[in-house]
């Protein structure tokens, strides 16, 4: 452990969180990957998170179980239809039905709890405010507010003066820039999963917002997306 700093890295198994984990490793952190099984409509991303955590050398990978289906309110946790074939203007306007109420707040709360136990002051999250689907909990002002909360609400912050930091290394990058960064850092994109509505064989639908943003990013980066899409 000598010379290493510990960081808790939120890892969904998607493209962005995988690159964020790689950034933490590049920055010299020993990475503790945290995935939340929140009752999402498919479990493929949990398997993707396991693959990515192993491939990127996470010191430990924990999957926390909670169930946001008891509240619903999202196409990812209730029987609502996932939007398909939306154009760029539609994706960039308003908050879509795939928004899961308070999801990042819940995720960051779990990460903060683990960080305090690990005596770590660093949390990584793979949000970005450029190519995103309008989620309010992906904005820089939200992350700044949670960082203030973390320093007010923990024993480490109050008694020991620990200053928690929420790292969002992808915050101001486009999807193409994220993909380029991930390639440089050795992320194997074949291991990742982004689709909101995969087919029964686990292939990405290619038409939901997450797929469209991913495909656009690879096209703009001049690279081929290595995952399989439904025909």
- Estimated share of beta-strand residues: 5-15%
Number of domains: 1
Shape: globular
N- to C-terminal separation?
Answer: 47 Å
Strand order in space, largest sheet: 3-2-1-4-5
Mean pLDDT: 94
Biggest β-sheet description:
5 strands, parallel
The unreliable regions are none
Number of strand elements: 5
Give the full name of the CATH homologous superfamily.
HUPs
Helix content: 25-40%
Name the CATH class: Alpha Beta
- CATH fold group: Rossmann fold
Description:
The protein is an alpha/beta fold and 231 residues long. It has one domain (5-221): HUPs (Rossmann fold), CATH 3.40.50.620. Helices cover 37% and strands 12% of the residues. It contains 8 helices and 5 strands; from the N terminus they run βαβαβααβααβαα. It has helices at 15-26, 44-55, 88-91, 103-118, 140-152, 155-159, 175-184, 209-221; strands spanning 5-10, 29-37, 60-65, 122-124, 165-167. It has a 5-stranded parallel sheet with strand order 3-2-1-4-5, sandwiched between helices. Helix 7 (175-184) crosses helix 8 (209-221). The longest helix is centred in the middle third of the chain and has 16 residues, at 103-118. It is globular, with a radius of gyration of 17 Å. The mean pLDDT is 94.
Question: Briefly, what is this?
Answer:
Helix content is 37%, strand content 12%. The protein is α/β, with parallel strands linked by helices. The model has no long low-confidence stretch (mean pLDDT 94).
What key phrases describe this protein's structure?
single chain; 231 residues; alpha/beta; Rossmann fold; 5-stranded parallel β-sheet; 8 helices; 5 strands; 37% helix; globular
């Amino acid at each position: 452990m000598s010379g290493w700093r510990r960081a808790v890295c939120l890892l969904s198994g998607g493209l962005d969180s995988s690159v964020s984990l790689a950034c933490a490793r590049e920055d010299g952190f020993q990475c503790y990957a945290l995935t939340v099984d929140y009752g999402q409509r498919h479990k493929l991303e949990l398997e993707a998170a396991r693959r990515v955590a192993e491939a990127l050398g996470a010191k430990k990978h924990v999957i926390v179980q909670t169930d946001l289906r008891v509240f619903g309110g999202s196409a990812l946790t209730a029987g609502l239809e996932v939007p398909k074939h939306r154009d760029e203007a539609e994706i960039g306007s308003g908050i879509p039905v795939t928004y899961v109420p308070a999801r990042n707040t819940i995720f960051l709360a779990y990460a903060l709890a683990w960080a305090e136990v690990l005596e770590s002051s660093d949390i990584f999250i793979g949000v970005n405010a450029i190519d995103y689907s309008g989620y309010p909990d992906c904005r820089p002002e939200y992350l700044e507010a949670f960082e203030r909360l973390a320093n007010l609400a923990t024993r480490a912050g109050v008694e020991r003066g620990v200053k928690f930091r929420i790292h969002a290394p992808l915050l101001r990058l486009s999807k193409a820039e994220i993909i380029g960064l991930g390639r440089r850092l050795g992320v194997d994109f074949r291991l990742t999963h982004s689709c909101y509505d995969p087919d029964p064989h686990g292939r990405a639908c290619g038409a939901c917002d997450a797929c469209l943003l991913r495909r656009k990013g690879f096209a703009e980066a001049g690279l081929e997306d290595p995952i399989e899409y439904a025909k």
